[in-house]
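#dry-run=false #mode=assembly
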Amino acid sequence: MTWLLLTFHGLSLLVYAFVVWRFARVHRSESRLLDELQEEGSVPARSRPVLFAVSYGIMTLAVVVSTSLLFAFQPHWL
Amino acid sequence: MTSDARERVIAVVPGHWVRYVRLVAVIALTGLADAAVFAAAGFFALHNPYLANGLFVAALLLLLLLYHWAFAAVASASMQCVIVTNHRVVSYAVRLLFYEELQEVAFEKMKSVDVVMDGFWPNLLRYGSLVFEGKVSVAYVPHPNRVARLIEQAQGLR
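#status=ok
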């Protein structure tokens, strides 16, 4: 069960990294599109990849910590 | 080159907030179901440890799928927008892990913009779809009549 939990956390972090990378890429292509249409800086930034990465990261950490605690305080699952 | 010949953005219209409602409802319901599976795992822990282990693993997997999907779906929905320039209308929609869709309708080809606000909720919450030339459709546009007027004004700015 411990290995399973570690695999779960590893998978979580991998998926997190992948989704953040995809979001940053899509955001870049959207910014490029707006830059093509208009000079840079004249359109307010609508997407916020940093905010997304931070809130998503906090949630990922919360899930990792809470499931670990849940697991740790149920010794009969070991 | 005259200033009108150069393309410039007139407006960037993000999608209506109602596009999050169904998403949030699905996330909340699935989250509750996941919490119930975790609770069931705890309930069976003393009497039937094998069942408890199975339920715990199932709850973990559901949680893994749910919250990663939730973040990806909300991020995708937040990127939907309609960009109106003095030359064309660009509709931008993204599903982070699946597709990136960019639909463009140039004013030269555009003769009509239809507004569809069909049903109780679209009329109450003021959202609807814009249909260009009966082919290209953009859903969840806030105040679509206002956006259609804006597009007609932009056509005049060409």
